[in-house]
Amino acid sequence: MQIEKNKSLKKYNTFGIDALAESFIAIQSVEALQDVLKINKKTPFILGGGSNMLLTNNIKGLVVHNSILGKKVEREFQHCVYVSAGGGENWHQFVLWTIKNKLGGIENLSLIPGRVGASPIQNIGAYGVELKDVFHKLEAVELATGKLHVFRKKDCEFGYRESIFKQKLKGKFCITKVYFKLLKNPKINISYGAIQQTLANKKIKNPTIKDISNAVIEIRSSKLPDPAELGNSGSFFKNPEISNAHFKKLQKQFPHIVFYKLENGKIKVPAGWLIEQCGWKGKRVGNTGAHAKQALVLVNYGNATGKEIQNLSKKIMNSVEKKFGIRLKAEVNVI
Hints:
Helices cover 26% and strands 27% of the residues. By secondary structure, the protein is of the alpha+beta class. The protein has three domains: 4-66, Uridine Diphospho-n-acetylenolpyruvylglucosamine Reductase, domain 2 (2-Layer Sandwich); 71-183, Uridine Diphospho-n-acetylenolpyruvylglucosamine Reductase, domain 3 (2-Layer Sandwich), CATH 3.30.465.10; 231-334, Alpha-Beta Complex (Uridine Diphospho-n-acetylenolpyruvylglucosamine Reductase, domain 1), CATH 3.90.78. Helix 5 (193-201) crosses helix 6. The chain is globular, with a radius of gyration of 20 Å. It starts with a strand and ends with a strand.
């Protein structure tokens, strides 16, 4: 068991923030995690791919890097297959593995950064699909006791970019394995116009799950910066949902407002559009800024601190609220 001291976390978070961990260890199995918890009396900080977090301080105590790997077909039926993946598996590589095995359901979630273990915490979603749509169950170790627990879908309390692990159970569990229900003959989801347009440009009329994945990869690559080249954490803010009455008032003032009607009667307004209307798109503030191709993505142009990015996010939130009466909420976990 090798515990490192004063470990730089710069390469362990996609913003590229050079925060320090007082102590650091990578674990490759449930048993290794349980052994660490036996000797470490304080609750450790669990770190996966670092793709949905903003480090604003050094982390005291022990940081445990979830490096539990493994992809497996668990059960197979006539129309569906149950598969599992270790919490430390790279999410995009897992998606490509399912496509290679001709199993559909998560192709729309291609190229989302991060690890499998973080996917239920965030209930990741993109292009008309959310993790909860294919989720079966997960296994997680309780950090206070070292006991392994199983969480079914109803236990996770999934919401829009939400789960029980971001609320009541935040910081209390390490997700070690996630199980998915995938389809042999999947229903293709091209409900988002960008996918339809990309397929049309390629003259693909009957797309496969591989075609969908390639289209999503092309779309994301065209407007989202690669964290390896420009520090970022993808979408920094959630797309806000507002009442119909609030929307009607805004529509009179801003006739070209972009919106989506939701089944719950509310209206979703893209946060990127709101931020862009406030003049932030492509604007640079010191070492930080809102990306030139997607205002929803805040970036580290080099050597920015977490607090600098946090301050930028607050300025953006205040300007959007002042202009539209909408208070944005961070999708990224600020630590």
